[in-house]
Amino acid sequence: xxxxxxxxxxxxxxxxxxxxxxxxxxxxxxxARAQSFYGPGVHQLMSTIDKTESIRxxxxxxGISYSKGWKLINRIEKAYGxxxxxxxxxxxxxxxxxxxxxGHQLMQKYEAFAGEVDQCVGELFQKHFx
Length: 130
Prior knowledge:
- By secondary structure, this protein is mainly α.
- 58% of the residues lie in helices and 10% in strands.
- The chain has six helices and four strands.
- A hairpin with a 7-residue loop joins strand 3 and strand 4 (96-99).
- Helix 3 crosses helix 4 (55-62) and helix 4 packs across helix 5.
């Protein structure tokens, strides 16, 4: 991009400040044991599976491969030590995957924890950057 044009279109560019971009905190919250196994993306996958009752459809909606979706679910179950999905194999009736009570509990705890972390981070951000 032509720097002259950027300066004319973006008065903040002269001062070296990004235009129209408010400073904000960004924290990625993950749960881990030996390695991270549950974070925002995996939470979205679990939520989408809960709505669709299908790993394949959830993966398609999120733009990830079916095999990657399975790997993520298997990683959760191994690290969490509980089944998060009840899988009904396909066939004439078609398969489906239902989030278990343990899976729902994990999702609810993560949402509550993430909400409180966001609130604390917001307060700390205000304290230090306001």
